[in-house]
Every structure is written in structure tokens, then in C-alpha cells.
Design a protein that fits this description.
Layout: E1 2-7, E2 10-12, E3 18-26, E4 28-39, E5 46-52, E6 57-59, E7 67-72, E8 77-82, E9 91-101, E10 106-110, E11 114-118
């Protein structure tokens, strides 16, 4: 059994900051990449940021310069530091991990999501 648990969401004013965390646990052999996606009401889920096992990162254009993704490989945790938040960043944020488990299978796993609301 593998779990991804997100934390750190909440309500913040425009211009504020939040830090999301994603912790992976269970029968994990290795984590190839970890990422954050978001889904706003009425919109499709979109990639926010992704980080590889070697710390290569990729960001959506809309968050470049404001968001920073990082990971702690020893703890199987990924973080998303979000600064200069805008109302359009409001969404449910989902953690995603591409992991190999004890069965040998390499596949994507999703967390249940955490709400981020940017509003005055």
C-alpha cells in the first residue's frame, strides 16, 4: 500500500505565501519524480511543477519566479513554496509521484488534494 499525503493548504491574501508538503509512504522502492498539479473549479487539472530524482525541475509558465519545488529524497517528501500568490492560483493542489513499489511496478500515484484559496 502506497500513500501520498498533502498538507499546508489554506486561505491566504493576495501577495502572501504558502508552503505545501507531500509525504510518500508505504512499500516504496524508489521515487523517480514528484510533482504538483492543480485544478480550479470548471477547469482541467494542470501541471504546476515537477522535480526529478536528480533535482531537475520544470514549472508552468504561470508560476515561474513565484513557486519553488524541492524534495527531500531521504524522507520521501516534496515541497512547493508558493510566493506572491494571486487569486488565479486558487485551486485544489494535488501531489503526484512516479514511484517503483515492492512489486516492481513503476507507476503514477496521486494524493487526495489540498485546497489553496487566495482571496482578500
Amino acid at each position: 500500500q502506497v500513500q501520498l499525503v498533502e498538507s499546508g493548504g489554506g486561505l491566504v491574501q493576495p501577495g502572501g505565501s504558502l508552503r505545501l508538503s507531500c509525504s510518500a509512504s508505504g512499500s516504496i522502492v524508489s521515487i523517480e519524480s514528484m510533482g504538483w498539479y492543480r485544478q480550479a473549479p470548471g477547469k482541467q487539472r494542470e501541471l504546476v511543477a515537477v522535480i526529478s530524482r536528480g533535482d531537475n525541475t520544470n514549472y508552468a509558465d504561470s508560476v515561474k519566479g513565484r513557486f519553488t519545488i524541492s524534495r527531500d529524497n531521504a524522507k520521501n517528501v516534496a515541497y512547493l513554496q508558493m510566493n506572491s500568490l494571486k487569486p488565479e492560483d486558487t485551486a485544489v493542489y494535488y501531489c503526484n509521484a512516479y514511484m517503483r513499489v515492492l512489486t516492481g511496478i513503476l507507476q503514477f500515484y496521486w494524493g487526495q488534494g489540498t485546497q489553496v484559496t487566495v482571496s482578500s
